[in-house]
């Protein structure tokens, strides 16, 4: 039998949200009723004006290959949006459009690390699992940066100082953060800036949840003096405009743009042609739907967190952003003699509520004893109430 590469067998990871989603679908097919808090996508429909722009583009024959980097009009709309929201000058030439923001994780790592040379990529832990998977797949070493509950799921600058070294080629930041909802503080960004300059590393700033900051305001590391030149800003339409299935994302950096674009040529050829007209409408058209969706997420955040905190053995701080709650379930696990959040997750799934466990977002940080679940509250208030009633019953109902 012809062999598979070690790269896919050993190094390539996955996104467990999709694995759990498949389990949920399988159970639903067999007739089990399940309320799902698994998937990180808005439960709203794409605003009509954006749909119409894409339909018009299809009707007008915008269905061919485009420049790999994206059409100039769409890159201009993105450069205006990035310049005004980040307070820096982003030229259309700096912008590359792709089919989702996600490809830029791999493209960036491929552009700034060499295979098997000991290059290090610092990834938030817990964190979006694709960072570690992509780093390992590209032959780099993924180094976890602990995010801690006592800092409202930001990291300790001392931890970052401890792990940065001459092999560090890239630091990945994700604010607002998946899975904890944490938002980076401006003063921490200042410390990152100093380290980035001292050790001369790149920063990939994953800002796909930029619009979903509920307390305080969004800050991008790229806005700090001297940082845009070493920061790849990654953003997209999936979360803000309820468009995950459209697959529209973009990145900006002056030096890397030609390489990201060359990677597009080698993989997807170009972003979807008619989608690029949807980008223009999304970023330059009316924004009332975006504000409505955000207000709704904010209400659900408060509902979710207050219901979680009513469950004995569970506590949850109010996340500052994104649409995730990351409750601490250590005591609930202890009451039920469970050794991990994964075991609790499985028990909850049997009872009809689907959530993710901390283990889906990286391994435990050294000396970390606590267990956490991740709930996406991008679901209706009725689902939130019914789902958390089940969770309360399972956890408080005894052994
Ligand atoms: N980055 C983070 C932190 C995410 O949570 C996700 C999706 O869940 C993505 C990137 C992918 O976004 P996109 O749909 O634009 O590829």
CATH class of the largest domain: Alpha Beta
Largest sheet: 8 strands, mixed
The CATH homologous superfamily of the largest domain is called Type I PLP-dependent aspartate aminotransferase-like (Major domain)
Mean pLDDT across the residues is: 96
Summarize the structure.
The chain is of the alpha/beta class. The chain has 14 helices and 13 strands. It has two domains: 6-45 and 289-395, Aspartate Aminotransferase, domain 1 (Alpha-Beta Complex); 49-284, Aspartate Aminotransferase, domain 2, CATH 3.40.640.
Verbal overview:
48% of the residues are buried. α4 packs parallel to α10 and α11 runs parallel beside α14. The mean pLDDT is 96. The longest helix is centred in the C-terminal third of the chain and has 22 residues. The chain has 399 residues and is of the alpha/beta class. It folds into 2 domains: 147 residues, Aspartate Aminotransferase, domain 1; 236 residues, 3-Layer(aba) Sandwich (Aspartate Aminotransferase, domain 2). Helices cover 41% and strands 14% of the residues. The radius of gyration is 21 Å and the shape is globular. It has an 8-stranded mixed beta sheet, with helices on both faces. Strands 10-13-12 form a 3-stranded antiparallel beta sheet. A two-stranded parallel ribbon has the order 1-11. The structure holds pyridoxal-5'-phosphate.
């Amino acid at each position: 039998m012809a062999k598979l590469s070690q790269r896919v067998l050993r190094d390539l990871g996955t996104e467990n949200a999709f694995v759990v989603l498949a389990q949920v679908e399988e159970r639903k097919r067999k007739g089990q009723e399940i309320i799902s808090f698994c998937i990180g996508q808005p439960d709203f429909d794409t605003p009509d004006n954006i749909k119409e722009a894409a339909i018009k583009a299809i009707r007008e024959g915008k269905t061919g290959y485009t420049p790999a980097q994206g059409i100039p009009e769409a890159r201009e709309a993105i450069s205006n949006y990035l310049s005004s929201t980040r307070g820096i000058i982003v030229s259309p030439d700096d912008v590359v459009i792709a089919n989702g923001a996600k490809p830029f994780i791999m493209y960036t790592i491929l552009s700034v690390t060499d295979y098997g040379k000991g290059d290090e990529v610092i990834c938030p832990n817990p964190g979006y699992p694709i960072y570690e998977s992509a780093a390992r797949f590209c032959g780099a070493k993924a180094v976890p940066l602990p995010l801690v509950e006592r800092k409202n799921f930001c990291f300790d600058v001392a931890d970052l100082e401890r792990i940065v070294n001459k092999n560090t080629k890239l630091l990945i930041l994700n604010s607002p953060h998946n899975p904890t909802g944490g938002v980076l503080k401006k003063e921490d960004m200042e410390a990152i800036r100093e380290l980035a300059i001292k050790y001369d590393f790149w920063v990939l700033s994953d800002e796909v949840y930029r619009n979903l900051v509920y307390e305080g305001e969004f800050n991008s590391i790229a806005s700090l003096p001297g940082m845009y030149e070493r920061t790849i800003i990654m953003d997209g339409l999936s979360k803000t405009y309820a468009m995950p299935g459209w697959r529209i994302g973009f990145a900006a950096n002056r030096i890397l743009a030609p390489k990201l674009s060359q990677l597009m040529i080698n993989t997807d050829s170009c972003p979807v042609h008619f989608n690029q007209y949807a980008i223009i409408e999304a970023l330059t058209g009316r924004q009332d739907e975006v504000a409505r969706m955000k207000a709704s997420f904010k209400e659900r955040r408060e509902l979710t967190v207050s219901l979680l905190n009513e469950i004995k053995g569970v506590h949850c701080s109010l996340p500052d952003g994104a649409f995730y709650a990351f409750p601490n379930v250590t005591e609930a696990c202890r009451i039920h003699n469970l050794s991990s959040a994964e075991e609790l997750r499985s028990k909850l799934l049997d009872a009809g509520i689907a959530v993710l466990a901390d283990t889906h977002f990286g391994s435990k940080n050294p000396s970390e004893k606590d267990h956490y679940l991740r709930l996406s509250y991008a679901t209706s208030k009725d689902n939130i109430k019914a789902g958390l009633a089940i969770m309360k019953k399972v956890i408080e109902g005894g052994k």
